[in-house]
Every structure is written in C-alpha cells, then in structure tokens.
Amino acid sequence: MPGVAILGSTGSIGTTALRVLSRHTDRFRVAALTAFNNADLLREQIERFRPSFAGIVKNGSTPADATGAGDCEPWSIGPECLVEAARRDDVDIVLNAIVGAAGLDATLAALARGKRVALANKETLVMGGPLVTVACAQGGGEIVPVDSEHSAILQCITGRPGVEVRRVIITASGGPFRQWTAEQLQAATLDDALRHPTWRMGRKITVDSATLANKALEVIEAHFLFGLPYEKIEVVVHPQSIVHSFVEFVDGSVLAQLGVPSMELPVLYALTHPERVSDSGVPQFDPVAASPLTFEPVDAERFPAFALGVAAGRRGGAAPAVFNAANEAAVALFLEGRVLFRDIGPAIAGALNALGSTPADTRDALLAADSAARRHVQERFGC
Ligand code: NAD
Ligand code: MG
Q: 3: which strand partners?
C-alpha cells in the first residue's frame, strides 16, 4: 500500500486529506504527518492514523508532547521535519499542503527521490518553477496538482498529447469583492476579505482570493505544471465555482470539469491519478440546483495584484519569487491588522519594481530574492 505523507496535516487541505484517506484505508497508508504549531490536533491525528513519523515546526508545549503513539517515532521538531518526512523510504506520495514558500525544500526533496508530489502548496511552484521542473525530471518524480482548477485541467487532458491543447481557461470565483466598486474597496476590512462566497479555506489563500493574487499564482502554476506558454492561459470569473476550468482543443472542442465546490475530489484525484476510485466525498451534482452558471471577464483595474502576478510570471527570473514573497509578506501584515486591504497591491508593485528584474535560477538566488522582497514590504510599512 502506498504511504502518504501529509505536510500541513492540521490545515484546511490537510484535514480534508485525512477525511479522504479515512475512507480509503484499503488503498493508502498514512505514513507521516507534519504541522506548524498545533500540537494538540497533531497528537489526535497521530493517535487515529498511526503514522510512523510526525514532525512539528514549532513545539511550544511540554516535552511530553514529543512522544509518539503506536509505531510513531518521537516527533521531529523544527523546520527540517518537512524534508525528513518528504524523504522517508516508507513515503510514496507527499501531499504538500503547507502555506507559502516554506514548502519549497520539501517539494524538491520528494521529487529528487522520485516520489509523487500531490501539490496544494502552489507558492512552491510559483517561486521556483524552473528549479522544481528540473528536480522532477532528474529525480523521476511527478507533480499532481491539488488545486481544483489544475485538477480540472489535468482531468480533461489526461490521455491526450499536449499538442492537442489550444488553450486553457481557468475559472475564478471573483472572491467577496467581485461586485465592489473601486471606492468601496478602499475601505475593505479583514472581516470582509475573509468572507469568501463559495470556498472555506485557510486565511492566507482566502485573502489571496479576495485580491485575485490567487488567480495570478494559479496562472503561473498552470504554466509550469502543463508546460503551456502564458498566451494559452486565460482566466474567467465564474461566481458559482461549479465549472473548475475549461480546456479548448485544436479542433475547437471545449471540455470542462464540473462539480459542487469541494476539495475532497481534487485531493483524492491527486492520490489516484490517472485512476478514479469510488468515493462518497462530493455531494451529488444537480444541474438544476446549480443553475444559472455565469461568466464574466476579470477586472484587472480593481484587482491590481492579478495583473502584477501574471506580468511577473511572464517576466520570469526572480520576478515570480518576488511577487509571491511580497504578497505573502503583505498578506501576513494585513492578517495581523497592521496594513489595509488596499495596501496589498501597491506593496507588491513596489517590491517588483525594486527587485523584479534580477535573474534567478538557483535555489540560493531564489531564496535571496524571496527574503529581499519580504524585507522590502516590511520596510515600506515600518515593520
Ligand atoms: P491552512 O492555513 O489551513 O493550513 C496550512 C498548514 O500548513 C497548517 O497545517 C500549518 O500548520 C502548516 N504550516 C503553515 N506554515 C508553515 C510553515 N512555515 N512550515 C510548516 N508548516 C506550515 O492553509 P490551506 O488553506 O490548507 O492551504 C494550504 C495550501 O493549499 C496553500 O498553498 C493554498 O494556496 C493551497 N490550496 C488550498 C485550498 C483550500 O481549499 N484550502 C485550495 C487550493 C489550494
Ligand atoms: Mg484554486
């Protein structure tokens, strides 16, 4: 039975993955779990799923926490637990479900060992796309997306040669501010931004969905995952989040993957691709109840982070890493209540102007660009 490591098991995707895996114990074994600092939930998960390895990045509690349950080794403590989990011999699939650039080394380590990376942690691919692609080719590993839009594209193109794809159209819910005017957006608060209309997710990606930075991250993610040039990747706003993406083929045919918004299917499919297995995780689709399905263009003026991100992807070099890190830093400050929603776009633009044209093709250069961008944003706000 393939062993699965879940990096970020206490988060939104991590807990969804454990729900999915609890329905498929005859097919997969939970081999490793890691969390950032939620020791209580991690301990519960260990008792229930009995992995052989557990890691926590920050363990604020008593040393007694660091004992295993069942066959679990003593917990590994510190950021290196991610790479340790990703490299283990009893791990075949690494579900990278942590947030942000901190997931890069674990993705690289798993790919270098020829493992499947079920990738939710899109920031990794945005920051180090060429590096990750090379690690994948050299190590013989594979990346299977967990992001629902990319899972949809994969489900539409599986079995077809890449030359048959004319373009892909990624759907975006439009987030909570889809119908807000530019003037209203000036006063948008954290509570407003966290009120996503169709998806329940972690706080960082929920804010990224409100600025549409998430959709720019997804355009760059699609570029690297599917080897598509940017002119073949489009985005359309689809408020109902039922169509998860479209693929247009060279004969003009358009395929799409549809379903009720739920991450259970993309998580399961990332584990079983190209197979499908019987599962009850997604509510049954009812076309009448889902009606009407509507589509509208993206308004890049009201959501500057979107255009900045796509331009950074096209520019290449350090620009995608700078975009990602500046966005992470600005969103972290917004989540702490230290900057306003309207500050996020200009903070990203400032970092890209100052740092976006450096070439960067090594891990060290990318990490340097990442740190410089974070510093740039923090200094801008005097933090
Ligand atoms: P979350 O905040 O709910 O969970 C994040 C997890 O990562 C937690 O377990 C946390 O302990 C861990 N973590 C955070 N920072 C860490 C660090 N520096 N080192 C190690 N572990 C760390 O986030 P989420 O919504 O589950 O998102 C996870 C990833 O999946 C993100 O990249 C997000 O963009 C992507 N994603 C999420 C969804 C969704 O529906 N939630 C959909 C598509 C893609
Ligand atoms: Mg998505």
A: 29
8 with 54: CB under 8 angstroms?
Answer: no
Distance CA 272, CA 262 (A): 17
Is 0.85 topped by the overall pTM? yes
Q: Which pLDDT score, from 0 to 100, does residue 72 have?
A: 86
Among the bound ligands, the one closest to the CA of 235: 2
Residue of minimum CA distance from atom 25 in ligand 1: 202
What does the block give as tokens for 86?
């990703």
Phi, psi of 176 (to 5 degrees): -70, -20
Taking CA atoms only, the protein residue closest to ligand 1 atom 7 is 98
**Do 103 and 79 touch, CB atoms closer than 8 A?**
no
Question: Is the CB of 213 within 6 Å of ligand 1?
Answer: no
* Interval 293-332: pLDDT, tens: 999 999 999 999 999 999 999 999 999 999 999 999 999 9
pLDDT at residue number 62:
46
Query: What residues have CB less than 8 Å from 258, skipping those under 6 apart?
Result: 242, 243, 244, 285, 290
Strand positions, DSSP E, the chain:
3-7, 29-35, 53-56, 76-77, 93-96, 116-119, 142-145, 165-172, 233-237, 243-249, 254-258
